[in-house]
Every structure is written in C-alpha cells, then in structure tokens.
Design a protein that fits this description.
Bound molecules: guanosine-5'-triphosphate, magnesium ion
Largest sheet: 7 strands, mixed
Structural class: alpha/beta
Number of helices: 10
Number of strands: 10
CATH topology of the largest domain: Rossmann fold
CATH class of the largest domain: Alpha Beta
Number of domains: 2
Helix content: 25-40%
Oligomer: single chain
Radius of gyration: 20 Å
Distance between the termini: 36 Å
CATH superfamily of the largest domain: P-loop containing nucleotide triphosphate hydrolases
C-alpha cells in the first residue's frame, strides 16, 4: 500500500532548513550559504523509499521584508504550509525564540498542522544549553517530537527523518520514484551560480542578484553548453561581481561549474554575462520574469 507525507520545512532565515533538506535527500537540491535569505522560493524535494514517498517543501526564512521580493518570499512560506501533513520547524541551537518562530507556531496552531521541532547546529553548542531551549519551545507548542540535529555533521538526521515519517498516510505517490526535485535543470543551474555569488560577495550585493540561464544545450559528446546572465541592481555592483580583471566572475564560474558537473554527471561549458536591472527587487514585472513569485 502506497503512503505519502507532505512536509513544509519552516523557520527564520539561516537556521539550516535547506541544509536539512539536502541531508534528507543526500543530494544538493537547495543552495546553502551563510547569508540569511538564501532560499527565495518554495523548493520541493522528494524522497521515495519503497512504498513511502516523503515530499519536502523547503521555504524561504520568514523575516521582516524590506522589498517587494521579501514580501513574495514571506508569502511563499504561507503557501508552502498550505495542505501539508506536517511541518518541520527548524531553530538554531542556543538561540532564543524569535518573532518568526512565534509567528510560525501561531500559524501551525491556527491551521491545526502537527509539527516536529528540529534544533539544528548542535555541533556549535554545549549540550547543557539545549535543555532550557527545549523546555521553552515545548511550552509553546505540542510538538510531535523534538530532535536535536546537526545538518552539517549528519547527527540526528536519521532520527529526525523517522519522526517525520510518522506524518505519512495511505495515498498514492505524486512523483515518479526517481524524482528528486521539482526544479527544472536550468533553474537548479542558475541557483548554483547564485550560491557562489552569495558565498563570495558581501553586504547588499549578493541579495540584489538574480540569475537566469538563457541557453542549456547538450552536445552529442555529452558536454553541456550553458549561458547565464547575472543581473545586479546597480552599476556599481556590476564591477564588484566582475571583479578586478574579471577574477570574481572567473571564480564564480568555476565554482558553479564544479557543482553542476557533480549534479548533472557530465562536463559543463559555462559562459557568464553580467547586466544591471535597477532596483529589480521592487519591480513586480521583473520579480515575475525571474520566476520569484
Ligand atoms: N555549524 C553548522 N552549520 C550549519 C548547520 N546546518 C547549516 N549550517 C550552516 O548554516 C548556514 C545556513 O544554512 P542554510 O541551510 O542555507 O539555512 P536556511 O535556513 O535554508 O537559510 P535561508 O534559506 O536563508 O532561510 C550555512 O552556512 C550552513 O552551512 C549545522 O548543523 N551546523
Ligand atoms: Mg534555505
């Protein structure tokens, strides 16, 4: 008998939601960086084990929006929580309860969504510190389980997955058994490029970047030809993205290429361009054009 479970992964920015999704799947379907607001849209990751299909919906970190894009990202959190069988609320070990956590717990209560709590990044915090945090959070919601984990080191990930499996109910599989994500290959490729920029650039520059893969062609010899445009918000950002003598762009390209070659399992020939779209994060038409709403 087939079973399925739809689970939304929610929490404030930077707590490790996407890292956990990747740990569940054993593959990188969601980009990860040390900057908050890395994830911009809902990302579906699918794990099929025999009769059981787990469908994870990774969401942007809930935050106080300062741009139209930010508002869209927050909206994606609510949309991601619609019609799921359960939520995985992720918090950071040793951190106080945030406004975002309170907001998310409020929604779980209002919509009667059962939830498991993951306390992530336990590799960074002494065990004694976890107790008071567990007490505090368990007083606010009747979590089905509370699991301390480290997405980075893999600690507790199997236990967490086991707890989430309890949300499964009898029902058909919605995806083929070998589906990993709902993201088209071009989108994933664009995300790998954005990940490099998030990791290598600072302050507002990486947050004001959107990437569009314009060409994606497989040659007969298996080589993948790809062309992508990096859009930034200001002329002054363009120079930073390109770097001195093009060095930044070169590093971004080779970093992204390595990720793509690992994921797609073939050699990639990547060409990058940089363009400016003034203030695109506040322009609905452009947000839509970049597939971010
Ligand atoms: N030390 C440590 N770092 C972790 C762990 N899990 C994630 N990180 C790091 O935390 C940062 C944020 O991880 P993400 O997975 O991008 O976090 P997120 O919650 O998806 O963030 P947003 O998409 O911005 O909401 C990255 O630098 C990760 O490498 C962990 O268990 N331990
Ligand atoms: Mg994320």
């Amino acid at each position: 008998m087939q079973k399925n479970a739809f689970i939304a992964i929610v929490g404030r920015p930077n707590v490790g939601k996407s890292s956990l999704l990747n740990a569940f799947l054993g593959q990188k379907v969601a980009i990860v960086s040390e900057k908050p607001q890395t994830t911009r849209t809902r990302i579906t990751g699918v794990l099929t084990k025999n009769e059981l299909q787990m469908v994870f919906i990774d969401t942007p970190g809930l935050h106080k929006p300062r741009t139209v894009l930010g508002e869209r990202m927050n909206r994606a959190v609510g949309d991601g929580m619609a019609d799921v069988d359960g939520c995985l609320l992720v918090v950071e070990a040793g951190s106080p309860v945030s406004k975002a956590d309170e907001n998310l717990i409020g929604r779980m209560k209002a919509r009667k969504i059962p939830a498991v709590l993951a306390i992530n990044k336990i590799d960074l915090v002494a065990k004694e510190k976890l107790l008071s945090q567990i007490l505090e959070l368990s007083g606010r919601f009747n979590f089905a389980a509370i699991v301390p984990v480290s997405a980075k080191e893999g600690d507790g990930v199997d236990e967490l997955l086991q707890e989430l499996e309890a949300f499964a109910a009898e029902g058909p599989h919605f995806f083929d058994g070998d589906t990993l994500t709902d993201q088209p290959e071009r989108v994933l490729a664009a995300e790998y490029i954005r990940e490099q920029l998030l990791r290598r650039l600072n302050q507002e520059v990486p947050h004001g970047i959107a990437v569009a893969v314009e060409a994606f062609r497989e040659r007969n010899d298996g080589l993948l030809d790809m062309e992508a445009i990096i859009y930034c918000e200001k002329e002054s950002h363009k120079g930073i993205v390109i770097g001195k003598r093009g060095e930044m762009l070169k590093k971004v390209g080779s970093g992204a290429r390595a990720e793509m070659e690992a994921f797609f399992g073939c050699r990639v020939n990547l060409q990058l361009w940089v363009k400016v779209k003034e203030d695109w994060r506040n322009r609905q038409g452009l947000i839509h054009h970049f597939g971010l709403d």
